[in-house]
Amino acid sequence: MNPFAEIHPALILLIGALFVPLFRGVWRSAWTILLPVLALAAVAALPSPGEGAQWTGWTLRVLPWVNEPLTFLRVDGLSKAFAYIFTINAIAAFVFAFYVKQSGQHVAALIYIGAALGAVFAGDLISLYVFWEVMAVASTFVILARRTEKAKGSAYRYVLIHLLGGLFFLAGLAITVAQTGSIAFDGFDFDTAQNAGTWLILLGFLVNAAAPPFSAWLSDAYPEASVTGGLILSAYTTKTAVYALLRGYEGWEPLIWVGCIMSIYGIIYALLENDMRRILAYSIINQVGFMVCAAGIGGPIAISGATAHAFCHIIYKSLLWMSAGAVLYRVGKSKCTDLGGLYKTMPWTLTFGTIGALAISAVPLTSGFTSKTIILHAAEHEHLFWPWLILEAASAGVFLHAGIKFPYFVFFNQDRGLRPKEAPLSMLLAMGALSFLCLFLGIYPQPLYDILPYHVDYNAWTVPHVIAQAQLLMLSALVFFLFLPMLKRTATISLDTDWFYRKGGDAFYRLADKSLNAINAATSRLFLGKVVNSITNFFESGLPRLACFFMTPIWKLMGHDAAQIEAERHSLFRRSKIGAFPVSITAFFAVILLGLLSLLFKTGK
Q1: Assigned domain for 579 exists
Q2: Euclidean distance between CA atoms 209 and 202, whole angstroms
Q3: Alpha-carbon torsion 431, 433, 437, 439, what sign?
Q4: Mean pLDDT across the stretch 315-341?
Q5: 57-87 pLDDT, tens per residue?
Q6: In a domain, 15, yes or no
Q7: Structural domain tally of the chain?
Q8: Which has fewest Cβ within 10 Å: 5, 54, 456, 583?
Q9: CA-CA distance, 514 to 522, in Å (whole number)?
């Protein structure tokens, strides 16, 4: 019997993360590599139910108000494909990070990746929500691990946006469960399941997918993380959101146009950007747009295409982040205006980064060509002309900003006299492994096609496909070099949608400060300055006077002379100052109060 059978892969990372601080030096690095290797073995050992079938395990019935149990391990073709690439990428990332000595970052990263695995295997909305929020918290600590002021600021904004997305998700979950009585996460039908709950859940998913106008968190936070942190972050949050969209919102037509907007939006900002890691961050939005569009198209071709593209995207995007991270590690700079001429001393980093750039551009013989073209084929198959045209144009734009611009301005362009050493061996090994996968899956994609949710009878290697893609790429290259004089990098800052909530948040704070604090001040002056003082004066002097007024006739009936009555009055005032009224007088006023209440009660009745 396989020792890994039915072991939840997420638990290996989540529990193993707790032991990271116990190790030191090379043993810590070895431990962090071993954990995702074991998780990959656990994924491979899980049952493969076959196309359209599911296998469930790790169920727990703890909620009395729903009839269904929590399902922590739901296995099918979709979840298993994402789990494969999540664990493969984790192995490469920790090999790349072999030199890192921060145990805190490793702990946060392992919990983050483990929560991502938990999310793709979650079989119900509540389990998904729990892992969703764990991802948000753990990824915030991954950003904070760089320990710079910019990292702290971006982490603060990052967690606020993701808490907002989590609130959308939670509100939608509550509404959906209240209306249906079910926590199942099997997909919402576009024609019958549209309600406030499903739309709110969709909004929460789109926040994590970095769909505009909620996309600025990605380009704001990822480049401020450490060399390893940016690499790890690039692979999980947005792709977990893609998984959730493929699972829950297949065929929701608005997603087609959301994806098209994302694909163009990411290109525009990547072309404007000066920082190499921000270029790659915007490129993530562009690439996720293809997957979101595929989720909106729906059907076996589109879903398998999006899954294949997510698989390949994680590989070549991580490779690009590794290349940029190696440069940042050796040079300490990330702006294109500060870089150039690095091909002379970092040839292997250039070579591997170029392979990633070619793969993201869908150049034939690379993995991007064998995955992205499936999504284009799905749009063509459904006769969606405008989405197909937009995605084709976006493909050309990808070659401009990631295929040419990134390697050109970082490694070539103007030689600024930088002569750093080549990247460390562990970084080169990780980049070499991912480069191999980019080429292997481009030349022989069948192993990837075999793990997709649906069997797709698709062949990227047709003459029309290759010729059309080659023409598109050559045209993009021609445009780049023709307009190269206009693309001179300057130390500029591009305003993104975060400008609105940065400025809006500041304006809201000042408005709240002026209005609410003004109300507080007015209330303080009115009640504390006047009402409370009046009440205090009443109890200090008014109440004793009133008591003397009522008690004087009683004192006379008791035979007190004028001197005795005056003494009683002085005694009453003195006791009132220290709050010690005679019991008889207190009882007298209590009787009067009860009488008044009785009259009011009778009148109201």
Answers
A1: yes
A2: 10
A3: positive
A4: 93
A5: 888 777 776 778 899 999 999 999 999 999 9
A6: no
A7: 1
A8: 583
A9: 12
